[in-house]
Specification:
This protein has a 6-stranded antiparallel β-barrel. The chain has a 6-stranded antiparallel barrel with strand order 8-9-12-15-14-13. The longest helix has 23 residues, at 24-46. The protein is globular. The chain is of the alpha+beta class. The N and C termini lie far apart (152 Å). It contains 5 helices and 15 strands. A hairpin with a 3-residue loop joins strand 13 and strand 14. It has helices at 24-46, 49-58, 82-89, 122-125, 294-305; strands at residues 93-100, 103-111, 117-120, 128-134, 140-149, 154-159, 169-170, 181-186, 194-210, 222-224, 227-229, 237-245, 257-260, 264-272, 289-293.
């Protein structure tokens, strides 16, 4: 009888042979896919951090997507711009018309109280029999002269029947620096609300002007450095320390505002050099204008309000 080989019990059967390992190239091919998925998940979790890390490695810097790209763009706010200053301060600047025995003159002024107090140059209203004020919205009012200081070429007038006006913010002219940007607003040649801009060209200039209206011609005669500009200042004259600016000033800007980029009044425009044209008339602004520092005005404001004429 033939003996058959004994079959081992089931439990001792060897397991199925293991599957052959995947070819090496397959594993290599899948690693980048897995890595990309992991990076994508991490990037989704940390937002723009991955981009910032990449830029740090490559030596480039870019802002997170929520902040936009670094660079010069159009600001969403007009604060600190000429347009922003003009919008904020223009409602506080008025045009002044004064009738005198010598004729009529036009200048500008700055509202400094809700009740209608307006600061301007003395030479704008000196000797005036009647004064009218036009606001930036076109409304006109009669006004009266409250007080004058011819030595500082300053005057205070009061608008009759006006209330709720927008006063200008007064700055500190002692903090001005040469080269600082400024804005001028006034009514040159009767063009109400004209805005120009420039810089502070110099400080503490000794400017001499005439005290009397008769000696103040349309081109604002003054003396500087021993020389006369725009005609004779007359026998009665005064000298004050002035801010020099290259912001364009023309006849009619007198008494208007010189403003810093924070929208604060830092000077009252008072004189400008107007060289003669070929036909003998004034050629207009050449970027040589002067303003009375606002601190000078604040120093005499109490006297002007009390009705004194100095």
């Amino acid at each position: 009888m033939t003996d058959f080989p004994q079959t081992p019990p089931h439990s001792s059967w060897p397991p199925f042979p293991p599957q052959p390992p995947e070819p090496q190239q397959h594993r290599r091919a899948r690693r980048p896919v897995a890595l990309i998925v992991a990076v994508a998940i991490a990037a989704a979790a940390i937002g723009g951090g991955a981009a910032t890390l990449l830029d740090g490695v490559t030596g480039q810097q870019s802002a997170p997507a929520s902040q936009g790209v670094n660079g010069t763009t159009v600001s969403t706010s007009s604060a600190g711009t000429v347009a922003g200053v003009a919008q904020a301060v223009s409602p506080s600047i008025v045009e002044i018309s004064a009738n005198t025995g010598a004729g009529a003159s036009t200048g500008s002024g700055v509202i400094i109280s809700e009740g209608g107090e307006v600061i301007t140059n003395n030479h704008v209203v000196s000797g005036a029999a009647a004064v009218k004020v036009q606001l930036s919205d076109g409304k006109s009012y009669d006004a009266e002269v409250t007080g004058t200081d011819a030595s500082k070429d300053l005057a205070l007038i009061k608008i009759k029947g006006a209330s709720g006006l927008k006063p200008a913010a007064l700055g500190d002219s002692s903090k001005l620096r040469v080269g600082e940007e400024v804005v001028a607003i006034g009514s040159p040649e009767g063009l109400t609300g004209t805005v120009t801009s420039g810089i502070v060209s110099a400080l503490d200039r000794d400017v001499t002007v005439g005290k009397e209206r008769e000696s103040q011609q349309q081109e604002w005669p003054f003396e500087f450095g021993g020389r006369e500009f725009n005609g004779d200042t007359g026998d009665s004259r005064t000298t004050y320390k002035a801010i020099q600016t290259d912001a364009s000033l023309n006849p009619g800007n007198s008494g208007g505002a010189l403003i810093n980029m924070r929208g604060e009044i830092i000077g009252i425009n008072s004189a400008m050099y107007a060289p003669s044209a070929a036909n003998g008339s004034a050629a207009g602004s050449v970027g040589l204008g002067f303003a009375i520092p606002v601190n000078t005005m604040k120093g005499v404001l109490g006297d002007l309000r009390s009705g004194e004429s100095i």
